[in-house]
Structures are given as structure tokens and as C-alpha cells.
Amino acid sequence: MSMSSQEFLKSFDLLPEPEKREVASEIIRRTFPLNGKFECVEGQLSSLYAEFADEDRAMAEEGMEGYERGLLVEERSSF
User: Does 34 share its domain with 50?
Assistant: First the structure.
């Protein structure tokens, strides 16, 4: 991997999670342009589905944690 690629990855690692998702989405768009001639390497879709499933699971867990915190705050304020 080139030095510039390594530097890019170091910078990427420092980004907040929402910005990482935006940058990753843009890289995917630029790497796999959707011009109707998209060819997948065997296993590539499976890998992408797994990655997105992990991301969705993490986001759902974050959402549930926030919901639980809100319930606790609501419960405490009702006393």
C-alpha cells in the first residue's frame, strides 16, 4: 500500500463515525459506479451484506441504549 494510502487511512481513522460512513459511501460509489454494468466478484456481495448487517446491528444497539436511557430519565423524573 502506498504512503499516501496509509496516510489517508490514518486520517480516516480519526474521523467521527458519521463522517466515516459518508466517506466510505463515497469511496464505494467511486469504486463501483452504478452504470448498469456492475460486476461482482464472487463473495463480494456476501461480504458487503455482512458489513452492512454489522453496521445496522451496531446502530440498532446504539438506538436501544438511547431509548433505555430515556426511559430511565423519564422513570426517575416521575418519582
Answer: no
